[in-house]
Protein backbone atom coordinates (compact mmCIF):
# COMPACT_ATOMS: atom_id res chain seq x y z
CA UNK A 1 0.00 0.00 0.00
CA UNK A 2 1.31 3.40 -0.99
CA UNK A 3 -0.13 6.49 0.63
CA UNK A 4 0.85 9.96 -0.55
CA UNK A 5 0.00 13.39 0.78
CA UNK A 6 -0.55 16.19 -1.70
CA UNK A 7 1.52 19.37 -1.25
CA UNK A 8 0.84 22.56 -3.20
CA UNK A 9 4.18 24.28 -3.78
CA UNK A 10 4.97 28.01 -4.02
CA UNK A 11 5.12 27.82 -7.82
CA UNK A 12 1.54 26.41 -7.98
CA UNK A 13 2.73 22.91 -8.83
CA UNK A 14 1.68 19.85 -6.85
CA UNK A 15 4.08 17.36 -5.26
CA UNK A 16 3.09 13.99 -3.82
CA UNK A 17 5.03 13.11 -0.66
CA UNK A 18 5.18 9.57 0.69
CA UNK A 19 3.28 9.35 3.99
CA UNK A 20 5.52 6.63 5.43
CA UNK A 21 8.92 8.05 4.43
CA UNK A 22 9.00 11.81 4.93
CA UNK A 23 11.13 13.53 2.29
CA UNK A 24 10.41 10.94 -0.42
CA UNK A 25 8.37 12.18 -3.37
CA UNK A 26 6.72 10.57 -6.40
CA UNK A 27 8.86 11.34 -9.45
CA UNK A 28 9.08 10.42 -13.12
CA UNK A 29 12.09 10.74 -15.41
CA UNK A 30 11.97 12.49 -18.77
CA UNK A 31 11.36 9.11 -20.38
CA UNK A 32 8.36 8.47 -18.12
CA UNK A 33 10.02 5.94 -15.87
CA UNK A 34 9.44 6.17 -12.11
CA UNK A 35 12.23 7.70 -10.07
CA UNK A 36 13.55 6.28 -6.80
CA UNK A 37 11.85 7.88 -3.82
CA UNK A 38 15.03 8.00 -1.77
CA UNK A 39 16.75 10.07 -4.49
CA UNK A 40 14.04 12.74 -4.74
CA UNK A 41 13.75 16.17 -3.16
CA UNK A 42 10.93 18.71 -3.18
CA UNK A 43 12.80 21.24 -5.38
CA UNK A 44 13.42 18.78 -8.25
CA UNK A 45 11.49 19.28 -11.48
CA UNK A 46 10.72 15.57 -11.68
CA UNK A 47 8.38 15.78 -8.66
CA UNK A 48 6.37 18.83 -9.84
CA UNK A 49 2.97 18.00 -11.33
CA UNK A 50 0.13 20.11 -12.72
CA UNK A 51 -3.50 19.13 -12.26
CA UNK A 52 -5.66 18.87 -15.36
CA UNK A 53 -9.35 18.14 -15.65
CA UNK A 54 -10.49 15.34 -17.98
CA UNK A 55 -11.61 16.42 -21.46
CA UNK A 56 -15.11 17.89 -21.51
CA UNK A 57 -15.15 18.96 -17.85
CA UNK A 58 -15.57 22.66 -17.13
CA UNK A 59 -14.10 24.39 -14.11
CA UNK A 60 -16.22 26.70 -11.98
CA UNK A 61 -13.27 28.99 -11.25
CA UNK A 62 -12.39 31.76 -13.68
CA UNK A 63 -9.40 30.79 -15.81
CA UNK A 64 -6.10 32.13 -14.51
CA UNK A 65 -3.17 32.72 -16.80
CA UNK A 66 -0.08 30.58 -16.30
CA UNK A 67 2.67 32.53 -14.57
CA UNK A 68 6.35 31.82 -15.09
CA UNK A 69 8.39 31.74 -11.91
CA UNK A 70 12.14 32.32 -11.86
CA UNK A 71 13.56 29.12 -10.47
CA UNK A 72 16.52 29.72 -8.13
CA UNK A 73 18.60 26.90 -9.63
CA UNK A 74 19.80 26.50 -13.18
CA UNK A 75 20.96 23.30 -14.79
CA UNK A 76 24.67 23.90 -14.37
CA UNK A 77 24.68 25.32 -10.86
CA UNK A 78 26.86 23.55 -8.35
CA UNK A 79 25.18 21.69 -5.55
CA UNK A 80 26.28 22.55 -2.05
Automatic annotation (TrEMBL):
Highest taxon of source: Eukaryota
Pfam families xref list: FGF (PF00167)
Family as reported in the entry's similarity comment: Belongs to the heparin-binding growth factors family.
PANTHER family in the record: FIBROBLAST GROWTH FACTOR
One GO MF term: growth factor activity
Name of the protein this chain belongs to: Fibroblast growth factor 8
Organism: Ambystoma maculatum
InterPro entries noted in UniProt: Fibroblast_GF_fam, IL1/FGF
Gene3D superfamilies hit by this protein: 2.80.10.50
Amino acid sequence: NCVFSEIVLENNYTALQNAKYEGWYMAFTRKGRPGKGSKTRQHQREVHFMKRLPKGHQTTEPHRRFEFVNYPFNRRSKRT
